[in-house]
Write a sequence for this structure.
């Protein structure tokens, strides 16, 4: 079998990328030769290879003190898997991405126990938005539609290829106000904007916050008026109040998808 004939680095890179070039039929050394030898497709690039010797400190900003040391010789291979998100021309913008970064920590071939352990978000990415006031984990396939940090009007809106939009709007209410006042102010704003709450004040909780859920109907002006239905969740943090808005093509929002429920469960309003 090919799996038995190739070297360990190539074998574990199969696990990371799901493909392998036919040329990798012999063990590879832990050096820059992997960069040219491993090119399964045009979007996958090996960007760094580093040999780590037994006893060497694994030093970086997030390593605990005192730093841990390698228990055995390792080969660290870093991959970049495109095509990324490059519609934004400003390469310093948060919405710009060259692709997904993957680190593969490879034992020496003689020491490998024929097991692969994966860590990561499985296509999810953790983000911090609204001046680092809200943290949550979202699918990496989401695209940022628009955003603003204007005081009193801060928001971020995403579009999903799964036919829904997800937005977070910061409210001007003080978190120190009573729930009754906060909810009444929100409901008054909904009415003032020509919308209607058809389901309201359903208690819910996220990872760190208490909230109230609403179902809101809005008429969108067009040649033929369209009714938009959204699930909106009012969340109170220690320093801010936000509204999470989910708009889908589904008329019945009594059951959100497992993906959206997981996002709501993990959101943190600070």
């Amino acid at each position: 079998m090919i799996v038995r004939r190739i070297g360990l680095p190539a074998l574990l890179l199969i696990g990371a990328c799901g493909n392998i070039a036919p040329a990798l039929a012999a063990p590879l050394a832990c050096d820059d030769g992997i960069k040219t030898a491993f090119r399964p497709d045009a979007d996958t690039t090996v960007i760094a290879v580093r040999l780590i010797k037994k006893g060497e400190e694994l030093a970086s900003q997030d390593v605990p003190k005192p730093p841990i040391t390698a228990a055995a010789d390792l080969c660290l291979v870093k991959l970049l898997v495109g095509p990324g998100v490059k519609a934004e021309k400003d390469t310093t913008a948060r919405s710009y991405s060259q692709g997904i970064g993957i680190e593969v920590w490879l034992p020496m071939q003689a020491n490998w126990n024929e097991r692969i352990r994966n860590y990561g978000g499985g296509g999810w990415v953790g983000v911090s938005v609204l001046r680092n006031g809200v943290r949550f984990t979202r699918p990496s396939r989401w695209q940022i539609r628009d955003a603003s940090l204007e005081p009193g009007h801060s928001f971020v809106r995403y579009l999903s290829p799964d036919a829904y939009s997800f937005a977070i709007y910061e409210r001007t209410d003080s978190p120190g106000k009573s729930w009754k006042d906060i909810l009444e102010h929100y409901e008054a704003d909904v009415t003032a904007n020509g919308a209607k709450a058809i389901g309201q004040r359903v208690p819910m909780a996220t990872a760190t916050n208490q909230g109230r859920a609403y179902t809101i109907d809005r008429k969108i002006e067009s040649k033929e008026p369209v009714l938009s239905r959204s699930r909106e969740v009012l969340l109170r943090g220690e320093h801010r109040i936000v509204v999470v808005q989910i708009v889908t093509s589904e008329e019945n929002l009594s059951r959100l998808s497992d993906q959206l429920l997981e996002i709501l469960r993990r959101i943190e309003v600070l």
